[in-house]
From TrEMBL:
Database matches in InterPro entries: B-phosphoglucomutase_hydrolase, Beta-PGM, Beta-PGM-like, HAD-like_sf, HAD-SF_hydro_IA, HAD_sf, PGP-like_dom2
Protein name: Beta-phosphoglucomutase
Family the UniProt entry places it in: Belongs to the HAD-like hydrolase superfamily. CbbY/CbbZ/Gph/YieH family.
EC number from the UniProt entry: 5.4.2.6
Enzyme class, first EC level, given as a word: isomerase
Length: 217
């Protein structure tokens, strides 16, 4: 594998499905504010930062809040969210995820995590997979949200690999855009009609092989 030297993985929706916990916490927050937050609207929050997610939720309910109130609401949501992720176990790792990341390492390909979540370390610890990654870039290390490529470029930099030799695995449109904006290859995890900017789309890491990565454009 000469053309692939590093694989960078998003966390939520690629390694583990935390979207359901984010959704429950946002729904609870919305209910407290007097409106319902639908699963359909929740799709808009994928890959989006906590504060931007709150703004979208408030927009859906037609509610306006001051900056100070928003800080407090985002903190409340995070308290409920962390209560749930603290109960997670390795059984919640998505099918094939651990095996695929390990197969990269076995083939001499460097691995990194590139996630917007400030809770990444808690989740990786709960899943017992911190050691699967040579570098971990999370929401605490970046200032610009996806589709800005900062999170992935920092990952490549920590691994000392140039962007054109990196493949990013992403379930969010903004994440695929970030990878492409960073000059990297992108494998979409999910629906090819939605992630059409990706170089290749699969339903999960159980459906991709290192051989397939070699032939990416
Ligand atoms: C990921 C998820 C988003 C979430 C964001 C921030 O990108 O896909 O839904 O809002 O991380 O997560 P955090 O754990 O920092 O609130
Ligand atoms: Mg994601």
């Amino acid at each position: 594998m000469n053309n692939i030297k590093a694989c960078i993985f998003d966390l939520d929706g690629v390694i583990v499905d935390t979207a359901v916990y984010h959704y429950k916490a946002w729904k609870r927050l919305a209910a407290g504010l007097g409106f319902d937050f639908s699963e359909h609207d929740n799709e808009r929050l994928k890959g989006v930062s906590r504060m931007r997610s709150l703004e979208i939720v408030l927009e859906c309910g037609g509610v306006t809040k001051t900056d100070a109130e928003k800080e407090q609401l985002a903190a409340q949501k995070n308290t409920w969210y962390t209560e749930m992720i603290n109960q997670m176990t390795p059984a919640e790792i998505l099918p094939g995820a651990q095996e695929f990341v390990q197969s990269c390492r076995d083939a001499g390909i460097k691995t990194a995590l590139g996630s917007a979540s400030k809770n990444s370390m808690t989740i990786l610890n709960k899943l017992n997979i911190v050691n699967l990654f040579d570098a971990i870039i999370d929401g605490n290390k970046v200032s610009k949200a996806k589709p800005d490529p900062e999170v992935f470029l920092k990952g490549a930099e920590e691994l000392s690999i140039e962007p054109q030799f990196c493949v990013v695995f992403e379930d969010a449109i903004a994440g695929v855009e970030a990878a492409k904006a960073g000059g990297m290859k992108a494998v979409g995890i999910g629906d090819a009609n939605i992630l059409h900017e990706a170089d290749m789309v699969v339903s999960g890491l159980d459906k991709v092989t290192l051989e397939q990565l070699e032939i990416l454009p």
